[in-house]
Amino acid sequence: MNLKDIYNEVSRLNGINVYDLIEKLDLHVIENPNFENRKLYSSILFDQKIIFIQPELEEEFKQFLLWHEIGHYLLHHSEGYSFNFYMSRFKSKTEMEANLFAFFAMMIGETAENINILDAAIHKGIPEQIAIKVCDLSQSVLQL
């Protein structure tokens, strides 16, 4: 999937709130305290329509993770599969696509003319190392 396809997929959501989209997609979010021990932040199980997430995260980071997992759900849905978000593992094609999906969803309505996109992305809860990569990749799409 290319950048423009991911951007267009997010645009079709019309700026919906992440929690409203979770409800609309009939997904269920469950906090899993066992994730802290494994350095795992979130996971999605397609068949069960469940997003597991580490408890007690900052709200902005939590929303990034939810958008990321929804990105997997909408872009990579395949029966019997699941995806896990570890901060140290985000360089695969599918992980980068989910990161770009989350970035576009969280940055909708922002314009490069008025703000520093990288600073805004970090402020909205996107981890810095991911924000740097997706900002670099997304520049051509954001100028559409």
Task: Walk me through the topology.
Blueprint: H1 3-11, H2 18-24, E1 28-31, H3 35-38, E2 40-45, E3 50-53, H4 59-76, E4 82-86, H5 93-107, H6 117-123, H7 128-142
Parallel strand pairs: 1-3
Antiparallel strand pairs: 2-3, 2-4
Rg over C-alpha atoms, rounded to the nearest angstrom = 14 Å
Q: Which H/E pattern describes the elements?
A: HHEHEEHEHHH
Report the uncertain regions: none
Strand order of the largest sheet: 1-3-2-4
* Beta fraction: 5-15%
Q: What's the overall geometry?
A: globular
Summing up helix and strand content along with how strands pair, one would put the structural category as alpha+beta
Mean of residue pLDDT values: 82
Biggest sheet details: 4 strands, mixed
Number of folding domains?
1
Number of helices: 7
The helix content, as a percent range, equals: 40-55%
Terminal-residue CA separation: 18 Å
Describe the protein's architecture and organization.
The structure is a single chain. With 144 residues, this protein is an alpha+beta fold. It has one domain. The protein has seven helices and four strands, in the order H-H-E-H-E-E-H-E-H-H-H. The protein has helices at 3-11, 18-24, 35-38, 59-76, 93-107, 117-123, 128-142; strands at 28-31, 40-45, 50-53, 82-86. A four-stranded mixed β-sheet has the order 1-3-2-4. Strand 2 and strand 3 form a beta hairpin. The protein is globular, with a radius of gyration of 14 Å. It starts with a helix and ends with a helix. The relative contact order is 0.16. The mean pLDDT is 82.
Task: Please give a quick description of this structure.
By secondary structure, the protein is α+β, with helices and mostly antiparallel strands. The chain has one domain (3-142). The protein has helices at residues 3-11, 18-24, 35-38, 59-76, 93-107, 117-123, 128-142; strands spanning 28-31, 40-45, 50-53, 82-86.
